C-alpha cells in the first residue's frame, strides 16, 4: 500500500508502488479535486445521475459491454470530472449530449460514484498475450533468406543484386509491395514477398535501415566522372551525392552499379513504371546509363534517420511513469489504464497519434508508436489487474 498526499487529502493506492511513479505534482486547483472529497450523499446523488445519463453506455456498474466504450468503474474521480467538463465544451456527440446540460455539482457526483465502484476485471485468458518480441531480432531471422543475394548486413557482393542498406523504410516497403503485387516483375522476389504481411515488411525495412551502410564491393563498367555531369539532373530527388532526403525516393549512393544500370534501363523501356522516372530515363543512352551508375556506386552511402523501436517492456515502463505501476494510477487527475477495454485504448492512442485528441505530453509520447505498438500496449494494459483507490482525509483545510 503506498501513500500520496494531495493538498489536504491522503491518497492510498492499494497494491501500488510510489517509488515507481513520477514525483508529486503541484496541487491542482480546488475545483479539480472536488470529487476526491465527495461524501456518501454525493455518491448517492451520482448514482441517480448515472442512472439517467450514463448507464445506457457505461452501465450502472461502470463496466462497458459496448465496443469502443471505456470502463469507468474505479477510474480516478478527478480525471472523470475533468473529462466530463471537457465534453461539455466539445462538438456535439453522444457524450456531449449526455452531459451538456448537467450542472458541475452533478458532474462531481457522478465522477465520485463511478470512482467508488469495483474496477473491471483484467481481460480473460482467452485474450492471447502479445509477445514482447524484439522486432529487429525477428527481422534478422527473416533476413537470413536474403543474405545469399543481398549480403548478411544488406551490402551486396553479387553484381546485379541491390544493396538494401541506406534505404528509407518507406521506400523499402513500397518496393517490396510492388514485387508482392507483381507491379515489379521478378518471380523470385514475388515468391519471397508474397507471404509477408505489412508488419513483417516494416520490421525487415527497419532492420536494413539500421545496418551500417557501406559501398557495394562490386565492379562498375562506366565512367564515374562522366556520370557526375548527368547526375546533376537527378539531385533534386535522389540527393546531390545520391543520398535522398525524401522518404519514398531511394538513395543511390554506394549501390551496386550493375543493378542501378539495369533498373534505369527498365524505366527507359517501360518495364518498370514510374511517371517521375520513365521520361528522364527515356532520354539516356546505354553508355550514359552505365556512367551514371558508376558515379553513384562510388559515392558514400548514409544510414537513413530512423530510430530503433522500443520493446513492449520499454514502452510500458514509460507509460507507467504517469499512469502508475501496471497502469494503476495513484494521481487523482491521471487516468488508470489497468483492465481497460483494449479496443478503447487503441482508439485513444490512435487519436493522440493523429492529433484528434490534444495533449502535449501524450502527442509526444505516441508520435513514434507503430500500429503494432498500439495494439501491444492496449492488450497489455487490458490484462493488468485494476487496483481500487481509497481516499483518506488528514487534518488540514479542505478545498
Helix and strand arrangement:
Elements: E1 2-6, E2 9-13, H1 40-53, H2 55-58, H3 77-88, H4 94-99, H5 104-115, H6 135-143, H7 147-150, H8 169-181, H9 187-193, H10 198-209, H11 224-231, H12 235-238, H13 257-269, H14 275-282, H15 286-297, H16 312-323, H17 342-354, H18 360-366, H19 371-382, E3 389-393
Antiparallel strand pairs: 1-2, 2-3
Helix pairs in contact: 1-5, 3-5, 6-10, 8-9, 8-10, 11-15, 13-14, 13-15, 17-19
The termini sit apart by 25 Å
Q: What's the CATH superfamily of the largest domain, by name?
A: Cytochrome c-like domain
Uncertain regions spanning at least 5 consecutive residues = 1-27
CATH fold-level topology of the largest domain: Cytochrome Bc1 Complex, Chain D, domain 2
Determine Rg (CA atoms, Å): 29 Å
Strand order of the largest sheet: 1-2-3
Q: Could you give a short account of the major beta sheet?
A: 3 strands, antiparallel
The residue-averaged pLDDT reads 87
Number of strands: 3
CATH architectural group of the largest domain: Orthogonal Bundle
Brief characterization of the structure:
By secondary structure, this protein is mainly alpha-helical. Strands 1-2-3 form a 3-stranded antiparallel sheet, with no helix packed on it. A hairpin with a 2-residue loop joins strand 1 and strand 2.
Please describe what this structure looks like.
- 46% of the residues lie in helices and 4% in strands.
- The protein is mostly helical.
- It has two domains: 2-128 and 312-393, Cytochrome Bc1 Complex, Chain D, domain 2 (Orthogonal Bundle), CATH 1.10.760.10; 135-297, Cytochrome Bc1 Complex, Chain D, domain 2.
- The protein has a three-stranded antiparallel sheet, with no helix packed on it.
- Strand 1 and strand 2 form a beta hairpin.
- The longest helix has 14 residues, at 40-53.
- The chain is elongated, with a radius of gyration of 29 Å.
